[in-house]
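Take a look at the protein record below and tell me what you see:
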Amino acid sequence: MPIFFILLLVSYLLGNIYIFVRVIQALGHLSFIIRGIFGTLYWICALLLFASFALRDVKQIPFTLGHIIFQIGSGWLAFTLYMVIFLACADLIKLFNNTFSYGLITALILTTGLLAYGYINYQHPDKQVINIPVNKSLVNKDKLKIIAISDLHLGLGTDEKRLKRNIDSINAENPDIILIAGDLIDSGVTPVISRKMDQELNRLNAPMGIYMVPGNHEYISGIKDCMDFINKTKIQLLKDSLVALPCGLQIIGRDDYSNINRLSTNDWAVLTDPSKPIIIIDHQPYNLSEVQRIGADLQVSGHTHNGQVIPLKFLTEYLFDISYGYEKRENTHFYVSSGLSLWGPPFRIGTNSEMVVFECYFAK
């Protein structure tokens, strides 16, 4: 993972150099002072990405300032991605058509339009409704409504206002159970605490419980600090834990895949009763065939964001067995959510944020 981020940041810097050189070439007729002002502003915006990482858990920074820095810095990441793609295409066209001289302005217009669409799309999360038939019975129940969400990434990016809208949408469904498949917190608990987001989370309402597993970002944020914060809410954190509800439903909350010492699938095979319904929450959707072997009826995951934007969507499809959506394998139902919010740039391009409603029907 550190190698991935190193490559990402190196690519980001190289991409910004490419864009900067192309813009300076286009501004060659302007004075040195104007180009200098442009260059200073450009690199301030580009380097705010690094500032947003450095300031994510600094208590002395006002939340509003940190939020602005995060939005610009992370947004510039997406701006760089699409400007490089469109500029490279324009340069290829110029190789075959030397008269084409509108590459920069064309790339800028396309990038701006695409980001505007992605931002608007992000403001309107989807609701997916999935029917899950389970060939096992519960005590005195034959149906449950379960809401599953993941990847809220609360912090400088997802603030308390967006969280409030999300919770209103969840409560409007009147779920029996709420499952949170990791990455509730983004990159530090300081902004989450300062904006009193625990008060919003305590508005979640599910009579049979709210259950969450840690994701990789809970470990990035400091797992102990995250656990202390979650303990102030109604959410029950399942970190390699099993909850057996009075109706007979077993909910397994697996620790994140990044913890190499988490319980194995074989351990869970011993700890559960396969004759009763089993739901697994596991942030990262790996080793799915092992889940089938222990008789699980449903596994809910997140983490992938469905790539969040094209072309990263194609990368997650390559990396994960199921990168997004619903699939049934033998008697096990799998759902990998694209997440209710997102990481970094506030854009959804070619993907959607979502809340998942499982209508679970059990044998009588």
